[in-house]
Amino acid sequence: MNEINNSILTLILLLPLAGALLVLLAPDRVKLPNWIALLTSLATFGLTLHLPAHFDKAQTGFQFVVNLQWIEKPAIFYHLGVDGLSLWLVVLVGLLAPIGVIASWNAIRERRKLFFALFLVQQTAMFGVFLSLDLILYYGFWELSLVPMAILIAMYGRKDGPRAALKFFLFTFIPSAPLLVAILWLYARTGSFDFATLQLWIASGALPAGALWWVALTFLFAFAVKVPVFPLHGWLADTFSEAPVALAMVVAGKLGLYSMLRFHIGLFPTQARAVAPLLVGLAVIGILYGACLALVQRDFWRLMAFAALSHLSLITLGIYGLTLTGWEGAVYQILNHGVVDGALFLLLGLLYDRYRTSEINAYGGLAAKLPRTATFFVFASLAMIGLPMLGGFVGEFMILLGTFTGVSKGWAIAATLGVILGAAYMLWLVQRLFFGPESALATSKPPEDLRLGQLTVLWPLAALMLVMGIAPMFWLPTIQTGPHPPLRPQQAAATQYPIILHGTCAAAAHEAPELIATSELAAKCESNGEGQR
Amino acid sequence: MNAPLHLWLIPLLPFAGFLINGILGRRLPKWIVTTVALLAPLAALGLVLNAAQGFFGIGATVSSLPYIETCPLPWINAGLLHIDFSFVLDQLSLVMLLVVTGVGFLIHVYSVGYMSDDEGYARYFSYLNLFLFFMTVLVLAGNALVMFIGWEGVGLASYLLIGFWFQKKSAADAGMKAFIVNRIGDFGFLIAMFLLVANFGTLTFTEIATKLGQDPGWNGGVVTVIALCLMMGAAGKSAQLPLYIWLPDAMEGPTPVSALIHAATMVTAGVYMVARTHVLFDHSPFALSVVAIVGAATAIFAATIALVQNDIKRVLAYSTISQLGYMFLGCGVAAYSAAIFHLMTHAFFKALLFLAAGSVIHAIGGEQDLRKMGGLWKKLPVTFAVTTVGVLAIAGIPPFAGFFSKDAILYAAFLQGTNGKILYSVGLLTALLTAFYMFRLWYMTFLGEPRSPQSHSHESPWSMRGPLLILAALSICGGWIWLFGFGEFLAPVLGARVTEASSWRLLVPYTQYSLSLETVLSIVAVLVALEGWLIADKFYRRKPARPAQWATAMPAGYKLLANKYFVDEFYGATVVKPLLGFSKVFLEWVVDVGILGGATWLLGGIATFAGAILQRWQSGNLRSYAAWLAAGAAALLLFLLVPWTTVLATLPAIHLGLAGH
């Protein structure tokens, strides 16, 4: 078991890469590339499930760590590990890969070898981003994740692939260049690319504060574009309209949000705290702006893009609210968003594949012809708009509650307005696609509802949405072992809890110090000795 | 010693019914679908009766109320938040459960006949079971968040059932409207929950009550804000001003749905919620008066619209809104038990009226226009008889159920000083209007001469007539329990009534009510109701030309009422269109495409430093483009392996530049 634990992360990283090689070597016949990709991604998913099964929930910090020197000078290490923050994100990437393959099964008809090979490379890159604890390693994977994406958008775009790919390229590569410079600057000052070492260096105050401020900002900028945060979302709508469905599922959100938590706030807590109010404001604007624009889109890919902007902004709000409740909600919401978006994109991809248009008004009345498609779509939409008992609600509620109690009532109320708008644009979309009298488009093709392959994916996804809504405690305790938001200096002093706190006391220290002062909570915190950690 | 009552099974059984019929329904034979659909509410009703027996029956197994069941695993436990799945059974939830499962079961039975020819038979029953699941969760909830599950869930069931005939655009539109308007109310509910957590650190109803009781300092201020936010949620769900607009449109759904969801149970959830959280309202006189005023205003507002509607279901819909207004009026004068009592009797007679209307519509082939009915009493004797009972009950004629409950609310209002007198007068006027429009409906449907050929109209099957008769019996006798101390029964949960004029918070036990005053007020109420009947009789039997004369005499007033005060148009012009226009024109064209898009391409143009390269990329040559990207990737990979010492030698210069030394 120990050998497996030691090498599991490496296996997860290499398996998709090996699959990609196999796809390239094997002949492109009878869907062979599809099958190789599917089996590889399923096997990888199986491997990622090993992590939560053997993750020690009683322990904070990184587990399954691999730390080998790769290059002596400069000191680059092959340093991987997962903690409560990245654990489920890795599993999520593992889960989305087979779904992406299924979504591409019929949609990709030519150059399948290239497509599936790049798709698998992209998967390795994403795993790498979530697992790397060495900044250069991390940066390599970060860049690697952009390359297959750009190529695939250019080659498989629906109407104007190259233009969208160029936009994507400009938006994501350019901020990455200063990121590299910032990483190298850190190395020049500290002689280390190691995450934990750098964390200590930065906390020690030995680095020049002025420069550090710019370095932190460079990190943030690269991540904020990737999420995207308003107003840096220019690439999103075009990318969603052009990217193959399998990539649209993974392109937005996860990587950027994770990087914010780990490498922006994690490395630069003081600087992050300073810019947090700005991010909170932008996030709330993003929630409402995305929702308003989603209301008026005529193309369902663009609608999904602005809906994604709205939802990702909500997660950003949870992150930069810097409350414990909000952080846990944010990580949970990343997971949920991945699952729900995966299902919705799969379904929309099927519709597009069949009817060759993404013009919403051309549709209508499909529910009678495609009852299963309609049912799953409605279900996923409900999960997306945060119906209680489905996954979206838990994260949303925690983020909004954290913001309300710990950050600002006004921003929280504004963000909650997004709840209403979210219901409006999603239900309107559902209605225009599936309800009403049968459209000419619906009549034009013989009905062909979901088939076994798609159902085997959608049923588990639907079940997952339900379980995520009812039993979040299956995930939350592990997420809680991950990093916690930095305390405000005066909070830390006032509550005399030095660095890291856990559970209720930590939350109270963050979000409502007055509760600690007044209620029985104080006694509980002291008796638990939670403050001493 | 408390024996377990297995409350969790009450919602879970309908949920199982939903899953079975929802997933397999299309493949199962019809009789299995029917059996599953009926067993779910029947078993739930059985469990509720079992629970009631556990407390009050012979050999009671449960010693005291409230009886709480908590799921051993918490739902959410993170940061400040600790939420359990907890169910509470007390007098209040017991009454509500009996109404929900009892009326719910009857309407399920009725639906078997009503929907027998529909293609979506299984889908219909799966939704109906889903509704019962969420509704029972809402009622049993021990904390606000679990209640919110049910709260949003019944909204979902309502959305699905209103839009049941989704190929009709108006039906799909109405479903969406209902859900979104409800969400506006839910926004208030959410904010209230945030405030509760921020101030009390809990969402559990009993804990909130304890904390409020411990500290006399909780008055007004934040408690008022919480109560008003809750009221906003209640106004959305229970179709009060200004959020009532979805309910009339909700009549697009099948008629049994209108009876169950949009009359008897779901729309009363707001009243139930206010009663459930009444401790908060008790600590805020201002919030209470808002509740009372909203209730009274809604009651009379909706009643005036109902005067001139010609669609039988719309008359009943506006009547429901009006009656819900009564319930809020009751809550607003802190007569919670009277409000719950009216909720219950209303569930009986309004479900009866809707089902009877459904029976009429069913019989004459889907016609809903009152002007095309008339003279139906001969052809539909049972329906006619039960409608008569329902009309008498809602009009407040003794000894029918509505008389007692309406009277209890009006009496409580009357005791509340000057404001109370005004509320009472509004309530009384509403009672007059109610009697008028209900008898108008009665005359136009059943009496007079047939106004269109009804050759094949026929009485409904027994599966439909049975529930009608039971509900009719309940509409007659349901009110009598007030005389046997229904108010006292609820008092442990809802408290004794607040009655005195000088102080809103002085509690007076029931025994000190002056019977004489109550009697006088009752007589007044009955006279007013009879007056309403007489006017209707004059207008619609003796002088049928009179309504048209009045309409022509006051064209402006008639137009205003017939168009429902143009509220939908008002919202369309002030909220919906501006929002869409603003989003499209300003946000999308100006901000997104213009400012942000322009800035992007400007910056992009600078950053790509060479327009020539840009042009080549845009030339559409995929191969060269892909090659560029691949080359970039390769360069990056190489970058990881180059000797770093040379690179790093140059770095201090960069950092100096960055730091601005």
Structural topology:
The complex is a heterodimer of chains A (533) and B (661).
Chain A: H1 2-25, H2 32-54, E1 63-71, E2 76-82, H3 84-104, H4 112-131, H5 135-156, H6 161-190, H7 195-204, H8 209-226, H9 234-242, H10 245-251, H11 254-265, H12 269-295, H13 300-320, H14 324-355, H15 371-384, H16 391-406, H17 409-434, H18 440-444, H19 452-470, H20 476-480, H21 489-495, H22 503-511, H23 513-518, H24 520-528
Antiparallel strand pairs in A: 1-2
Chain B: H1 9-24, H2 30-56, E1 67-78, E2 81-89, H3 91-114, H4 121-140, H5 144-162, H6 169-200, H7 205-214, H8 221-237, H9 246-249, H10 255-264, H11 269-276, H12 278-282, H13 285-306, H14 312-332, H15 336-363, H16 381-395, H17 401-414, H18 417-446, H19 462-477, H20 486-494, H21 515-542, H22 546-553, H23 555-562, H24 567-607, H25 611-618, H26 622-639, H27 644-649, H28 651-659
Antiparallel strand pairs in B: 1-2
Helix pairs in contact in B: 1-2, 1-4, 2-3, 2-4, 3-4, 3-10, 3-15, 3-19, 4-5, 5-6, 5-10, 6-8, 8-11, 8-13, 10-15, 13-14, 13-18, 14-15, 14-17, 14-18, 15-16, 15-17, 15-19, 15-20, 16-18, 16-19, 17-18, 17-21, 18-21, 22-23
Give a structural overview.
Chain A is mainly α. Among the domains of chain A are: 200 residues, no CATH class; 47 residues, no CATH class. In chain A, 74% of the residues lie in helices and 3% in strands. Chain A contains 24 helices and 2 strands. A two-stranded antiparallel ribbon of chain A has the order 1-2. In chain A, a hairpin with a 4-residue loop joins strand 1 and strand 2. In chain A, helix 6 packs across helix 9, helix 13 runs antiparallel to helix 14 and helix 14 runs antiparallel to helix 15. The C terminus of chain A is likely disordered. Chain B is mainly alpha-helical and 661 residues long. Chain B has 28 helices and 2 strands. Chain B is globular. The C terminus of chain B is likely disordered.
